[in-house]
Amino acid sequence: MTTVRQPPVATRPGVRPSVVGRTGLYAVLLANAVVVAVFFAQAGFASNALIVLGRLTGLYAALLMAFQLLLVARLPWFDRRIGMDRLTSWHRWTGFSVLWLLLSHAVFIVFGYARSSSLDPVNQLVDLAETVEGVLRAIVALAIILVVGAVSARYARRRLAYETWHFIHLYTYVAVVLAFTHQVAAGTTFASSPAATAYWYGVWGVALTSVCAGRLVLPLWRNLRHRLRVTAVVPESDDVVSVYITGRDLDRLPARAGQFFLWRFLTKDRWWQANPFSLSAAPDGRTLRLTAKRAGDGSAALRHLKVGTRVFAEGPYGAFTTLHRTRPDAVLIAGGVGVTPIRALLEELHGHAVVIYRVSTDRDAVLHDELRDLALARGAELHLVTGPPVPDRLAPRELARLVPDIADRDVYLCGPPPMMNAVLGSLRELGVPGPQTHFERFSLAG
Predict the structure, then answer these.
(1) Looking at residue 33, what is its pLDDT?
(2) What is the pTM of this model?
(3) What are phi and psi of 136, to 5 degrees?
(4) Under-50 pLDDT residues of the chain
(5) Residue ranges covered by each domain of the chain
(6) pLDDT tens digits for 229-275?
(7) CB atoms inside a 10 Å sphere around CB 391
């Protein structure tokens, strides 16, 4: 349907928030890499080149390990600008870099010391573990990281339940502690000067404090403050349900349309399970709403929640918000239950919007009536696109027909991965600049 067009709204000039966030992280990493190199040079070089390389790879593995903790600390400033999906992806690839650096560190050190002794590499490793304080702890830490790396490989990750993978992944914190104690006990550079010692204590202190603050203290404080409870459970269709939640001082909860929470409903059988669900309505300071499709035991159990059930929510998370607007007008493209953050964004967006909702059949169009009424109230266009995946109903030609000026608009996209990949390809063909394309992948849930 076509409605009255609203006047365009000016967007904020200046550097994009995502660029600020990424630049901040890169600058922190680069500055610390330089500092590590300086302290390493000041400590002096061993006569054996293999030992030199071993020490250097060990130091950079320690630095990247601390950086990994920062990436998953869920600090609001970084999360709002970069997004948990991208931070989690960077954490994953940084983890593989740490793994290769640690393996290189172990090989260089063992073969370096073996060159200076009459021992073969295996006996040299045993000798180091028996005679050098902290080496045995380092071997255990490396073994843990090898196991975590194996279960994080794409082949294994797809075959593990998220809870199983997450439980194994938590042992990384044990490896971090063991690696740090090894560095304290055996690190030549660590003890080379008071400044180097203070620096490394500072690096690990900031990393661990960030994790503790972002993943423990802040969620506990917010939940104690807001005391969330279920107020209503409304079936939207046979396999989709909306849950309404209220609490105290929700006007002070820094949630925005397009974001999501990790929800724990404190029932006897589900209190331990956290699921990421987007807000399906813009926060109004009084109520939060999520809408979920049955896709597993956790989402299926939502239909049976009782009014008054206590809720523990971690968040809000995500960069899929109007903070990243670059153009006065927008296109909102939703697929299936991916309509939930799109529907919330439509409430908050200013300027003219075109909403494209892609489903297989009319019956699959969850929240369509709400979208229709909201589009009418806000002067937006709404297009319901139905049909099988093939032929592609959102191919470049179809998108250009529905939105002729799409290259001059911000595009917000949320839906199943195959549909999102296809639409992203269409947008590239239509010449939509990358900074105008906004999407988020919920990789946390696997």
Answers:
(1) 97
(2) 0.87
(3) -60, -40
(4) 1-10, 443-446
(5) 17-214, 227-317, 322-445
(6) 999 999 998 889 999 999 999 999 999 999 999 999 999 888 888 88
(7) 8
Report the pLDDT value the prediction gives residue 446, as an integer from 0 to 100. 32
The 10 Å Cβ neighbour count of residue 289 is: 23
Q: How many residues does the chain have?
A: 446
pLDDT of residue 296: 66
Whether 316 and 256 have beta carbons less than 8 Å apart is answered as yes
Query: Residue 213: which of 364, 69, 424 has the closest Cα?
Result: 69
- For residues 264 and 82, give the distance between their C-alpha atoms in angstroms, rounded to a whole number: 24
Class of domain 227-317: mainly beta
Neighbours of 96 (CB within 10 A): 12
Q: Cis peptide before 121, with omega less than 30 degrees from 0?
A: no
Q: Which of 344, 406, 346, 356 is nearest to 377 (CA)?
A: 346
Interacting residues of 79 by C-beta distance below 8 A, sequence separation 6+:
87, 317, 318, 319
pLDDT digits (tens, 9 = 90+) for 284-319: 999 999 999 877 666 678 989 999 999 999 999 999
pLDDT at 118: 83
CA 191 to chain centre: 36
Q: Note the pLDDT of residue 7.
A: 44
Rounded to a whole number, what is the distance in angstroms from the first to the last CA of the chain? 36
Euclidean distance between CA atoms 110 and 107, whole angstroms: 5
Domain 322-445 falls in which CATH fold?
Rossmann fold (3.40.50)
Residue 382 phi, psi (nearest 5): -125, 125
